């Protein structure tokens, strides 16, 4: 295939996933998808290999997609699939690692043959059970879990699936709206891929995918081979629930690939900060993407270079029925362990630890007098770690590119009044380049009854580390009416007039300050 043809095909496939992503974003009902971009749309080949992604897709969903499809096909083999089918699951050990994420797959047929799969993944605003939080003791408390089922069969919706889902969530209209937005995204991807095959007169995407994989692999290997072969070790510590969690990463680098082994990491814990393997895999390979080939879209040509070992029963690969609802509080810190391991051989490319993970705040209220209720999820980001040639970005999403929820949107959809929202001067670690500043957010309840607030926070005790002599960033805090919250990963109750203050952590500094 000529380089010109390859470039045309490659960009066309990305355009297809981008259009699917735009469809999902613009037709969704929840702010989680519409405002915060907590979703992904991808195309995979018939061997469950990632081919193309939408530009707004988050790293966690991109990385889990091939593993999810392989898990789905073990339950529902290709031979059982027909045009118009849509497969659905939210099983944490098949999908993205926790119940709120809906993973949907549509097989794409062309002239009677299966040629590809379209996948759409989105974080639903509710999945039943306890409200989304970190304080569940097992997965059964966290919501309804669907095994792999056919949401649609030959184009006809399975009413039982939607009835079960709607009967178990607090926001049935909103959840159904997001599910249907995902279906719309899948249909757009299917239609546009068939148009491409018809336009160019090709029977399938096998040759295109093979050429894409080869080009991506070659580009990544050129950069990988600049790293001296060897064994490198890194670690990161996080607040955990009631005891510090330590993640140990041993990287074995060869000219042909990398193995990352998390042996020695803390064992799985009682509460919902445990990781599943799929999510661990996704956020392990992502920092390599940043280091080796940031300009190349994700696909199997890159991901095939990495092997991840995460012993079962550890915090990075918990066994069922572990609670996993807030698994991102660990998963988003894996990049820090990888960067730490490579800091000795790639000092000019790694970044200091960031004020991650993003903080998630879920608010839910029930007015028994008026018979009304609401539920809303807000996301906020801390400061990014500094790099050799730049300060860390303030209040910026990393490693997940999930956006902050705009104040105007939050106030319109939730009974809260924001009192302040500002960057925290001096919260980034000092160094030759400063870590990014965290942000301070304060809001007041206007709900007439009890407002239940889940706090999914991190780095309130252990700061983001600096690198190459840089200082650590400042830790975060949570205050209710000016007083420290006893457990910043728990659930707090607010009444009308109460004020909650969130101060997010800053990123670590890079290098010694002149």
From TrEMBL:
Chain segments annotated as transmembrane: none
Q: Which GO terms describe its biological process?
A: glutathione metabolic process
- Which stretches make up the Hydantoinase B/oxoprolinase domain? 3-511
Select a single GO molecular function from the record's annotations and give it: 5-oxoprolinase (ATP-hydrolyzing) activity
Q: Which domain of life is it from?
A: Bacteria
What GO CC terms are in its UniProt record? Answer: cytosol
Protein name according to UniProt: Hydantoinase B/oxoprolinase family protein
Species of origin reads Zwartia hollandica
């Amino acid at each position: 295939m000529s380089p010109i043809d390859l470039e045309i095909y490659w960009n066309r496939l990305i355009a297809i996933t981008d259009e699917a992503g735009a469809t999902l974003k613009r037709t969704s009902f929840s702010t989680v998808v519409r405002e915060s971009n907590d979703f992904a749309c991808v195309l995979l080949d018939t061997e469950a290999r990632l081919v193309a992604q939408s530009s707004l897709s988050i790293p966690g969903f991109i990385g889990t997609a091939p593993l999810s499809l392989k898990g789905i096909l073990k339950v529902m083999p290709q031979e059982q699939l027909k045009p118009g089918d849509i497969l659905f699951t939210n099983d944490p050990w098949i999908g993205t690692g926790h119940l709120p994420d809906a993973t949907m797959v549509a097989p794409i047929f062309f002239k009677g043959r299966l040629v590809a799969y379209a996948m759409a993944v989105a974080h639903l605003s509710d999945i039943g059970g306890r409200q989304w939080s970190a304080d569940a003791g097992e997965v059964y408390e966290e919501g309804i879990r669907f095994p792999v089922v056919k949401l649609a069969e030959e184009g006809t919706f399975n009413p039982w699936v939607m009835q079960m889902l709607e009967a178990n969530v607090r926001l049935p209209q909103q959840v159904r709206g997001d599910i249907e937005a995902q279906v719309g995204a899948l249909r757009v991807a299917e239609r546009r891929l068939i148009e491409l095959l018809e336009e160019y007169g090709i029977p399938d995407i096998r040759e295109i995918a093979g050429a894409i994989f080869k080009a991506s692999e070659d580009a990544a290997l050129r950069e990988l081979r600049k790293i001296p072969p060897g064994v490198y070790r890194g670690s990161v510590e996080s607040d955990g629930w009631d005891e510090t969690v330590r993640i140990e990463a041993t990287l074995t680098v060869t000219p042909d690939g990398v193995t990352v082994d998390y042996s020695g990491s803390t064992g799985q814990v009682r509460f919902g900060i445990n990781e599943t393997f799929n999510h661990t895999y996704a956020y392990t390979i992502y920092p390599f993407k940043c280091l080796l080939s940031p300009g190349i879209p994700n696909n199997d040509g890159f991901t095939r270079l990495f092997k991840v070992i995460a012993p079962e029963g550890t915090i990075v690969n918990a066994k069922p029925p572990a609670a996993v609802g807030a698994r991102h509080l660990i998963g988003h810190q894996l990049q820090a362990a990888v960067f730490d391991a490579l800091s000795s051989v790639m000092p000019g490319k790694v970044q200091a630890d960031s004020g991650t993970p993003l903080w998630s705040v879920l608010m839910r209220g029930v007015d028994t007098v008026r018979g009304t209720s609401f539920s809303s999820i807000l996301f906020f980001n801390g400061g990014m770690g500094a790099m050799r040639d730049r300060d860390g970005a303030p209040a910026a999403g990393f490693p997940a590119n999930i956006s902050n929820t705009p104040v105007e949107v939050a106030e319109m959809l939730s009974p809260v009044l924001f009192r302040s929202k500002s960057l925290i001067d001096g919260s980034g670690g000092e160094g030759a380049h400063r870590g990014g500043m965290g942000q301070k957010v304060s809001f007041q309840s206007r709900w007439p009854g009890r407002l239940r607030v889940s706090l999914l926070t991190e780095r309130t005790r252990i700061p983001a580390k600096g690198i190459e002599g840089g200082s650590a960033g400042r830790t975060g805090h949570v205050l209710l009416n000016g007083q420290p919250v006893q457990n910043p990963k728990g659930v707090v109750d607010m009444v009308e007039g109460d004020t909650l203050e969130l101060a997010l952590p800053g990123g670590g500094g890079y290098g010694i300050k002149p």
